[in-house]
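Lab manual, section 2.4: Encoding a predicted structure.

Procedure: take the sequence of the chain (243 residues), apply the prediction step described in section 2.3, and record the output as structure tokens. A sample record is shown.
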Amino acid sequence: MNSFYNRLTTSLIGMDGGNIKAPLWVSGLEWAGYDEEITSKVTRPTYEVDGHKVPYLSDEWKASTPNFYKWQFDQKVAKILCRAFDYQGEYKDYMKEKYCSSSSNEFKLNLFPLPCRNVNDWQKQHIELTSTKIKYHYQTHCSITRFFLFNQLVKQFNPKVVLCFGQRFIEEYKMAFCGAYDTNSFHLEEYKLGSGKSRVKILTSDIFPTLVIAPFLGRNLVANSELEELGSIIAKYLSLPTT
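Recorded output:
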């Protein structure tokens, strides 16, 4: 295992971060698009919490990264958060004032640390950094190293709900945020959003955070009404008493 994977046991690379003590964590699969650098370095500002260098989006970073306000994934997440936390302003105001700040309502991360243009993307730079030509091998190594770190962070900071995007990766999300688990540890509920084409799976447990597994943000989940409905579902589970 090369030094890149060893770093994943301690370094929070490939994420926007925010308030790691927040009750809501938000996880995507990996950074997409063309704006992110393929690197083993943290590319966001950091602050220190209990020995961890935690990424976040500072006012200065947002001001120097105007494209941030155009990123559709983050726009949609912000709309969900506005409903979940009853924010009275516009979603763009939330992005500017609160989104992924060190005192925000959320902590935003990705299952896998390296940006890819799409789920099948794997370029020369990826291969050089990870020492594998097969993306699945890289993901498997991440499940041993990066997911171990996520397990420790969940135990330490105790998020109440983790919102996850991409139902194809439900087992990976379980492993990342619940570690070694018994299938009987979870109770499954399902919600239809809007007309019912989009469904959300809710995994509740007495010993793990509640996992809200939503479709990828994109063709499957685009309508504002569905995003707001998802925000209301999250608000419901955030408000439940801790068992």
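Check your result against the sample. The beta strands are 17-18, 24-28, 46-49, 52-55, 106-110, 161-165, 187-193, 198-204, 210-214.
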